[in-house]
């Protein structure tokens, strides 16, 4: 029965910060690995729309990290995600996004909103590199900004030494004795993550991923009171739902999913929802020139970094011919962002070289002149498709630097507005049962 409780979800807490770049990702990875290696059954989550950080989380714990998005996800999807996270776990550690109060708009979609909806307390990570006692004032401002967002502990990062640690700790104890200082992390070489135009380099591309995470775990073991931090976790305050419909309508019964370094941006909750709805999933690697299985009645090309592998993909005729054969046989083919570009006619890489793609949609894209497209989207279907009917609305996000050179004639897949309701116009294309757009869908909008 929908809404039935499988079991009480594990207690959780949120690692947040005043701003991006404060060190919350490295701290979270170290904490996750330390807990897991200590025998604690720890599950992890990431606030907001993110594909990169969850892959690092999964490497640290050995279990899938789920995204919890307070703007894009309805109560049912959010509750089911928390129920799934808490299954067979002792604690849930959620990493926030951007600054604690930064969201889709000034008053929606932030890490703080997620804390308010879940009841999970916040452990604030403050970069104290250029601060002394002023760090306590920063903490006071964040702790008092919203009464419904409990800041339960603080960790100071990039501390210069014992004297600096004493200053920030004493200032906090004097000003905010009710908020414990859980640790002071020293400046440490070799604990920064490389990045590229869409954020961090993927976990599978890190040259020494295990060594990096172990080093972060060692830092946490030495400088953080993990027992006190763990004791701050609180149970979910909502109704954890074990059942319910998928976040995104399955495009078929037998769905072939592209999965490799070029097509890695896929939410686990999307695939789990399709399985729960009875769909059978298979996986193939376009980079290895693999084609969708012949009996697939749907093909899903998620986002990723196809622009970094465009020449190789253009030469993989087994993959491209497999897509064309599936389309010719009536399979529904659905591409998001990078997958949308590959369904097009051509992709121009950063050097200005054009690579022929599948040619199933009238799309030409280019990275020769980058242009950032970023933000949440409310996307309303413009026609009946394999993922929904005309007028059905989804919530998702867009994050890419590709420039559309030509989107050709045809029927748009969506009509979009941003998180503030500003009209953005049509997005994507539909050709028969082939469809795609630059929007990563997160959840179906419900009344």
Describe this structure in words.
The structure is a single chain. This protein is α/β, with parallel strands linked by helices. It is 28% helix and 26% strand. Strand 20 and strand 21 form a beta hairpin. Helix 5 (134-145) packs across helix 6. The chain is elongated, with a radius of gyration of 22 Å. The two termini are 20 Å apart. The model is unreliable at 1-6 (pLDDT under 50).
Number of strands: 24
Strand order of the largest sheet: 3-2-4-1-5-6-7
Backbone structural class: alpha/beta
**CATH fourth-tier homologous superfamily of the largest domain:** P-loop containing nucleotide triphosphate hydrolases
**Mean pLDDT over the residues:** 93
Task: Compute the number of structural domains.
Answer: 2
Helix content: 25-40%
The CATH topology of the largest domain corresponds to: Rossmann fold
Given as residue ranges, the uncertain stretches (5+ residues, pLDDT < 50) are 1-6
Q: End-to-end span in angstroms?
A: 20 Å
Principal-axis shape: elongated
From the alpha carbons, calculate the radius of gyration and give it in angstroms. Answer: 22 Å
Helical stretch tally? 12
Biggest β-sheet strands, sense, barrel = 7 strands, parallel
Strand content: 25-35%
**What is the architecture of the largest domain at the second tier of CATH?**
3-Layer(aba) Sandwich
CATH class of the largest domain, named Alpha Beta
């Amino acid at each position: 029965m929908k809404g039935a409780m499988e079991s009480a979800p594990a207690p959780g807490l949120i690692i947040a910060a005043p701003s991006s770049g404060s060190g919350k990702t490295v701290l979270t990875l170290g904490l996750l690995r330390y807990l897991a290696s200590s025998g604690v059954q720890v599950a992890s989550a990431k606030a907001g729309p993110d594909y990169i950080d969850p892959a690092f989380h999964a490497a640290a714990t050995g279990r899938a990290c789920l995204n919890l998005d307070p703007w894009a996800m309805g109560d049912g999807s959010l509750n089911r995600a928390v129920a799934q996270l808490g299954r067979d776990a002792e604690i849930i550690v959620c990493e926030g996004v951007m600054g604690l109060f930064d969201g889709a708009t000034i008053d929606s979609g932030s890490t703080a909103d997620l804390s308010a909806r879940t009841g999970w307390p916040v452990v604030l990570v403050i970069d104290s590199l250029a601060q002394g006692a002023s760090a306590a004032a920063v903490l006071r401002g964040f702790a008092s900004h919203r009464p419904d967002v409990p800041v339960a502990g603080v960790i100071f990062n990039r501390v210069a030494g014992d004297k600096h640690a004493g200053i920030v700790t004493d200032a906090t104890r004097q000003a905010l004795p009710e908020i414990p200082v859980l640790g002071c992390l020293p400046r440490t070489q070799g604990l920064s993550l490389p990045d590229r135009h869409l954020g961090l380099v993927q976990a599978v591309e890190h040259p020494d991923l295990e060594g990096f995470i172990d080093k972060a775990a060692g830092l946490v073991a030495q400088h953080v009171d993990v027992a006190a931090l763990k004791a701050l976790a609180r149970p979910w305050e909502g109704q954890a739902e074990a059942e319910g419909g998928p976040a995104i309508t399955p495009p078929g019964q037998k769905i072939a999913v592209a999965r490799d370094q070029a097509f890695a941006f896929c939410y686990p909750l999307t695939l789990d929802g399709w399985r729960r709805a009875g769909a059978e999933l298979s996986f193939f690697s376009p980079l290895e020139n693999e084609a969708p299985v012949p009996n697939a009645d749907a093909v899903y090309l998620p986002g990723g970094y196809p622009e970094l592998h465009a020449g190789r993909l253009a030469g993989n005729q087994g993959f491209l011919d497999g897509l064309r054969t599936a389309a010719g046989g009536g399979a529904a083919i659905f591409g998001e962002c990078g997958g949308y570009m590959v369904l097009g006619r051509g992709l121009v890489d950063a050097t200005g070289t054009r690579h022929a793609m599948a040619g199933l949609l009238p799309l030409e894209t280019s990275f020769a002149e980058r242009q950032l497209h970023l933000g949440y989207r409310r996307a309303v279907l413009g026609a009946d498709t394999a993922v929904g009917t005309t007028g059905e609305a989804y919530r998702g996000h867009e994050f890419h630097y590709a420039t559309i050179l030509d989107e050709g004639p045809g029927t748009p897949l969506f009509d979009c507005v941003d998180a503030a309701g500003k009209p953005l116009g049509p997005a994507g294309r539909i050709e028969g049962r082939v469809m795609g757009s630059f929007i990563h869908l997160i959840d179906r909008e419900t009344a």
